[in-house]
Specification:
Blueprint: E1 6-13, E2 16-29, E3 34-38, E4 44-46, H1 52-55, H2 57-61, H3 64-68, H4 72-78, H5 86-99, H6 115-119, H7 137-150, H8 163-172, E5 182-185, E6 191-196, H9 197-209, H10 213-224, H11 226-229, H12 235-243, E7 247-252, E8 256-261, E9 266-272, H13 277-290, H14 299-302, E10 304-307, E11 313-319, E12 324-325
Antiparallel strand pairs: 1-2, 1-11, 2-3, 2-9, 3-12, 4-6, 5-6, 7-8, 8-9, 10-11
Helix pairs in contact: 4-7, 4-10, 5-7, 9-10
Length: 328
């Protein structure tokens, strides 16, 4: 079924609407009750990297932190889509070293680190990249550390039938909300799941509310080290700085963003159907504004200014939706 998305963000040129970005929003409480939304908050959407806190739960539940004497830095990296900066890769190397695992066992592949685009720095020509610099290498190093601790197969750690991935799948099923989760493969090779958007929001409401030891540990790690969860110039870093320890946030590829608000025990999930990052950012900031949450320092993300290659302003992007109360 095609989700019943609605216009969330428009782009303008010369004062006229040029583009329309469709999507949906879900706002839930810590019990998973839908409070507000836009579009189709019950439609299935792949969670992509917004699932990473849930994927770190088996490591926490099985005592991985104490087993390896890890702290919040390592846990933040396991939940990160990092930028491949030195502060990120050094911690990933430390996780692998503590577990006695070589970086060659990482199966996430490699790509140009996010740092260059986010910081506006030119990519060095001819440079070769390592799996350590992949934005998901923290998650993968956590997977491998769990396998070594539990004496499970490290070569097959991404197989959906692997005990670790079966544990993750069981956690995911808690959030299908009477429906089902559709399994796919993420860009890094790990199993990933499409959930109702309200189910993804519930994951983050529970993180913010601290409903369990694992949720409390992850909330602390991510909000204490937002620079490790994302990186220089990134939206998640700006959001968590703006939230001043009250918001835990995580973006996912193809237009997914989730936010947990501790002071309100709220979870928010936003989806832009075409995956455009600036539209996702404008929509997410608009949700926070409509919920009357303080958003210092987020002006650059609220209204994207469009420029041509000479730097001349040609238009912009802005949110055009209003949240509706559930059942209204």
């Amino acid at each position: 079924m095609i989700p019943r998305h609605v216009p969330l963000v428009v782009t303008t040129r010369g004062g006229a609407t040029e583009g329309v970005h469709y999507g949906s929003v879900a706002v839930v409480d810590a019990r998973g009750r839908l409070l507000m939304g836009a579009g189709d908050p019950h439609a299935l959407n792949f969670t992509r990297s917004a699932l990473k806190p849930l994927q770190a739960m088996p490591f926490l539940a099985d005592g991985g932190m104490a087993h390896y004497d890890f702290g919040s830095h390592e846990l933040a990296l396991m939940c990160a889509s990092h930028s491949g900066e030195a502060m990120h890769t050094s911690i990933v190397q430390g996780i692998l070293a503590r577990a006695g695992i070589g970086a060659r066992l990482l199966q996430c592949g490699c790509h140009v680190p996010h740092y260059f685009a986010a910081a506006g720095v030119a990519v060095p020509p001819g440079r070769k990249w390592l799996a350590l610099q992949h934005n998901c290498s923290g998650k993968h190093s956590g997977f491998l550390a769990w396998c070594r601790m539990r004496r499970e197969n490290v070569a097959r750690y991404l197989d959906p039938a692997h005990p670790l991935q079966q544990r993750v799948a069981a956690l995911v099923r808690r959030y299908v909300r009477g429906g089902r989760a559709v399994r796919g493969i993420d860009g890094c090779g790990a199993p990933n799941y499409a959930l109702p958007l309200a189910g993804l929001a519930q994951i983050y409401a529970e993180l913010a509310a601290g409903t369990g030891t694992g949720q409390r540990a992850i909330f602390y790690a991510m909000t204490r080290h937002p620079d490790l969860v994302s990186g220089t110039g990134r939206f998640d870093l700006a959001l968590m700085k703006g939230g001043r320890g009250d918001w835990v946030t995580k973006a996912g590829a193809m237009g997914v963003h989730a936010v947990g608000v501790r002071s309100r025990s709220l979870g928010i999930a936003v989806r832009i159907a075409d995956g455009t990052p600036y539209a996702l950012q404008a929509a997410t900031v608009s949700v926070l504004e409509q919920l009357r949450l303080p958003i210092p320092g987020l002006d650059p993300w609220r209204h994207k200014v469009m420029r041509n290659f000479t730097g001349r302003v040609t238009g912009g992007a802005r949110a055009v939706f209003r949240l509706a109360r559930a059942g209204a």
